[in-house]
Each structure stands twice: as C-alpha cells, then as structure tokens.
C-alpha cells in the first residue's frame, strides 16, 4: 500500500516501455488497486440493489419497463447475470486445468474446489486485502517491526 504513495514507483514507471509498465503495474500496486476497485464496485452494486428493493423504486422501474417494452432496462434490473459473470470468470481456470490435467481430472478438481468452498475463501481474502490496502492508503502503515534477532554481519 505504501508503494502507491511513494515517488519511486512513479519514477520507475516513467522509464519503462508500455508493456513493461503494464506488467510492473499489475504485479505491484495495480493488483491491489484493481482489487479495491472490484470490491468497492460490488459494494456499490449491492447497496444500489438493496435501495431499489427496499424503497419500492425497483418495482416501479420494472413496471415502466414492461409498459414501455424497454427490454434493456428489464435486463439491467434482473440480477441473474451475476451468476453468469461468476461462471465466465471461472472458465479460464477450468481451461488451464484441462490443459494441465486433462478434461475429466480438471472437472473433478473444479467440483472439489467448489465443494471445499474455495470461492468463499477467495472472496473473503479479497475483501481482507482490500481493507488493509485502503487502511494503509488512508492512514499510512509502513513501519519497522523488529524481530528481536539483531543484525548479523560477517
């Protein structure tokens, strides 16, 4: 998190060509920033859907979409696409497993991972990383933690 606030990352980024800069960004500060944006977007979406459901505005919009035959608005108000997004994000992982292990073993390992609730673990892991990244950006957090072993110079 502290790397985002430092000038060193900015200076290094100026010296790279475009592809090295993108590689550097997404392997250091960009990963955490993208993670934070993902989590904040999910929060905004869920708060919006909660507001639409509890205030009754969602039903009014659905009725207007039905009356005006606005299929785009109806499609936006339905949340079934969230399941599709989850499935589509799992496809690259499944294809990687198929290349490494073969089709049958890949499907078995994917189902095993789902039964072990790995997706729940990774969701909470993503949220935890985002929390501490945001806290470091807002309040700072880089400090030296002594291990008690001292320095060994030979």
From TrEMBL:
InterPro entries: Glyco_trans_48_dom
GO biological processes: (1->3)-beta-D-glucan biosynthetic process
GO terms for cellular component: 1,3-beta-D-glucan synthase complex; plasma membrane
Residues annotated as domain Glycosyl transferase: 1-153
UniProt keyword Cell membrane, yes or no: no
Transmembrane feature ranges: 24-46, 81-99, 106-126
Known EC number: 2.4.1.34
Keyword Glycoprotein annotated: no
One GO molecular-function entry: 1,3-beta-D-glucan synthase activity
Keyword annotations: Glycosyltransferase, Membrane, Transferase, Transmembrane, Transmembrane helix
One Pfam family cited in the UniProt record for this chain: Glucan_synthase
UniProt protein name: 1,3-beta-glucan synthase
Organism: Opuntia streptacantha (Prickly pear cactus)
Lineage of the organism: Eukaryota, Viridiplantae, Streptophyta, Embryophyta, Tracheophyta
């Amino acid at each position: 998190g502290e790397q985002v606030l430092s000038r060193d990352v900015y200076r290094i980024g100026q010296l790279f060509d475009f592809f090295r800069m993108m590689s550097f960004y997404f392997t250091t500060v960009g990963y955490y920033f993208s993670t934070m944006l993902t989590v904040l977007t999910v929060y905004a979406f869920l708060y919006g859907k909660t507001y639409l459901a509890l205030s009754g505005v969602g039903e009014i919009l659905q009725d207007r979409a039905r009356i005006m035959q606005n299929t785009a608005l109806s499609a936006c108000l339905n949340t079934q696409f969230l399941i599709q997004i989850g499935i589509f994000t799992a496809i690259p992982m499944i294809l990687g497993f198929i290349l490494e292990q073969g089709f049958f073993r890949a499907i078995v390992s994917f189902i095993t991972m789902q039964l072990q609730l790995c997706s729940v673990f990774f969701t909470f892991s993503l949220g935890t990383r985002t929390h501490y990244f945001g806290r470091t950006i807002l309040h700072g957090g880089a400090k030296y933690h002594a291990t008690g072993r001292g320095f060994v110079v030979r």
